[in-house]
Amino acid sequence: MAKLKTSFYCQNCGTQHSKWQGQCNSCKEWNTLVEEILEKTEKQSWKSPSSPVVKRVAKPLRISEIETSKEERLKTNDQELDRVLGGGIVPGSLTLLGGEPGIGKSTLLLQISLNLRYKTLYVSGEESQQQIKMRAQRINPDSNNCFILTETKTQNIFQQIEKLAPEIVIIDSIQTLHSDYIESGPGSISQIRECTAELIKYAKETATPVILIGHITKEGSIAGPKVLEHMVDTVLQFEGDRNHVYRILRAHKNRFGSTHELGIYEMQGNGLREVSNPSEILISKNEEDLSGTAIAATLEGVRPLMIEIQALVSSAVYGTPQRSATGYNAKRLNMLLAVLEKRAGFRLGAKDVFLNITGGISVDDPALDLAVVAAILSSNEDIAVPKDICFAAEVGLAGEVRPVTRVEQRIMEAEKLGFSSIIISTQSKIPKNNFIIKIQKTSKIEDVVSYLFG
Questions:
Q1: Per-residue DSSP letter, 434
Q2: What is the pTM of this model?
Q3: What pLDDT, in 10s, does the model give residues 275-313?
């Protein structure tokens, strides 16, 4: 009997070790090394039926000699997903979608596969065909292009792929697959790496896009080795709070487009609804004039958003004042409070300050600074900021109001949503366009204070 080849892999970072030891040499984590069997039988990798048996040896070419052909992206009939991917799914690409349990990853991909006009194979290793059918009836019961397969063995999956010849393959999830050529159990480092490599080979040889669902750890990173994210072409993160109805789709890695785009969905009983105008959900419809709120014009990729900033300033009951921020950088909040204390003369050192960005999203755009300052001062003075005023400027340590990028897009979005005035920096360069909205330019925080509360 042939001796089995074994090795030790770190379950945290995927580093291979020749022998067991308490600490991983790469990530320095303790007790993460597990022995795994490498190979069981002679490996027979995926082979496309149309590919020739004998392949030509690749030769180096000058970059000017390489011929390129513009491939048409596959539209998913989902504008939010197409925007995040950079215009659609690239043929032969491998996309990895991660997110919290129950956030809606399977619902999103099942909804897309039901609405596609391409032949789609949805492979599930976690649910039965009857369970998927029950969910599909709520989303779109009239679909003839979606095929459901419940299987976890990659060899059986590729047999069905050869018979069906789908145009898109969806795997739910990569942690449930296993290959006969690796002895380890499903979800182990070796199995994830091997199954992903087989899917990559299939995708590249047949120009068929593959979408994978990946589990995440309690820290929020995708489970399995970090090499999994390096192997795929695109890494998407599906975020949100299960107690709220809104979900956000972000791209952490994209070889075929930008990683700055953002997709927003609303979870409903019949699936996920695309939110084409996010400013509607991020700005409250309260008709009363309330102090402590201000509207900021921000950008997520090329999409302008209007976000409501809420602040609460109150006298500190205990000795040390509290500083709390939700959806905003707490260190930047402390910096802005120090600027208000030093440059504008507001005594906030003995007061509690709470800051919140509505809608449950997190934003790190410096253009929010002026709106944060306005919301804090509004709560402190108990004077409401007019609802038809918005802000788009950064605040420096000297109390100066600094310009931000692509201010023209922010102004156009504010004008489209009916704002009558926007406050920006005097250093912002604006093209000579006939804006209906009033553009108020300021250079210091003192000018903003006198304009709003003077």
A1: -
A2: 0.72
A3: 877 776 677 766 678 899 999 999 877 778 889 999 999
